[in-house]
Amino acid sequence: MKKRSTLTRTSASTMIALFSLLIASLVAGAALAQDENDPAQVRNREETRITAQEPQGEGLRERIRERIESEVGLQDQERERLRQHLGECERHGFDDALVAALFSESNPLREQIRTQERVLALAREGLPVEPVAQKLQEGRQKGVSQETLEQVCARIAEHVRAAHSFMERAREGGIAPGDENAERRHIREMAMHMWHGLKEGDMDRIQTRARQRLQDGSCTTEDVVAAAETATRLAEMGIERSRAVRLAGDALQYGYTPREMRQLVWAVMTANVHGGPQDDVIDTLERGIRNQRQLSQMVQEMWQHGWMGPADEHGGRSPMDNAPGSGPGSGQQGQGAGEDGQGGGGSDKGSGGK
Questions:
Q1: How confident is the model at residue 308 (pLDDT cuts 50, 70, 90)?
Q2: Which of helix, strand or coil describes residue 120?
Q3: Alpha-carbon distance 145 to 112, whole Å?
Q4: Could you tell me the CA-to-CA distances from 317 to 178, 263, 341, 343 in Å, in that order?
Q5: What residues have CB less than 8 Å from 138, skipping those under 6 apart?
Q6: Which residues, 6+ apart, have CB-to-CB distance to 289 below 8 Å?
Q7: Is 216 in contact with 233 (CB distance < 8 Å)?
Q8: Percentage of the residues of the chain whose pLDDT score is greater than 90
Q9: Contact call for residues 82 and 68 (beta carbons, < 8 A)
C-alpha cells in the first residue's frame, strides 16, 4: 500500500510538471504569435533583413565609386556624369543586377555613359525600364559588344515610348485602364511585342477593333494587350503578320477574353504539331469567330479533322479543357468549358457570345 502511494505521488508530480510545461509552451507560443503580428516587430524584422542585404549592394556601389574616381583616361566631365548616373540609379531604386549591368566591369566606363543615359531617361519620364534592363543584362551575359548593346538599348527604349503612347491613345479612346501597376505592365508587354515584330500599324489596327468592340460592350487595356500578344505569337508561328493581326483583331472585336485569345494561340500551336494545314486551321478559326461560334466548338471541329491528338481530349471532355488557362486558378479572366463542353465564353461576350 505504501509503495502504491509513492507511485501515485510520483505520477501526480509528473503530470503536474507536464501540465506546467504545456502551459508555458502555450504562453510562449501566444507571445511569439503576437510578436510576429505586432507592427513594431514586423518593422524591426524588415529593417534587419534590409540591413543584412545592404553590404552586398553597398559593396557593389562602393566598388563602382572607387572605379569612377580611379579609372584612367576619363575626363573630369565624364567622371561627373558617371557620379550623377550612379546617384540616379540609387534614387530610382535600381536593383544590383541592373546597376552592375550599367557599370559593367568588362567595358570601359566611358563607353557605357550613353547606355546609362538611355535607361535613366526612361526612368525620369516615369516609364518602365525593365525591357531595356532585360536586354542589357542578356547582352552582358552573352558578351555582346558595347556598340551592339547600345543599338539594342536604343531600339527597345523607343519601343517602350511607342507602347506608352499607344496605351495613352487607347485610354483616351475610351478603353478602360487597369490600376497603375497593371498599366506599367501593359507598357512593358507591348514594348516586348514590338521587339518581337509587332508594328505600330498593327497596333493601330488592333486599336480600331477595340473601338468597334466598345460599340457593343466594354473593352479594357488588358484585352488590347492580349490581342497584341496573340498577333505576335501567331506571327512567330509562321502565319503572315497581317493575317495574324486580323485574326487577333476579330477575336478582340467579338468579345474574346484574354484567356480565350491565348487559347486561340494554343489551338493553332497544337494543330501545327499534328500537321494541320495552317491556312485551313486559320480559316476554321476566322470563320468560327465571325459566325460567333463557341471556341470549344471550333476546337472540337479541329479535333474531328485530326488536327488535335488523343491527349487533347481528356476524360471525354472538350479538348478546350486542356488549353492553357482553362482550369480553376488559372489567373485569367473567365471560366473553363461548361459541362456540355460548349461553355468557352469567359464573359457575356466571350467566344463571340454577343
A1: confident
A2: helix
A3: 11
A4: 34, 16, 6, 12
A5: none
A6: 247, 250, 251, 254, 256, 298, 352
A7: no
A8: 59
A9: yes
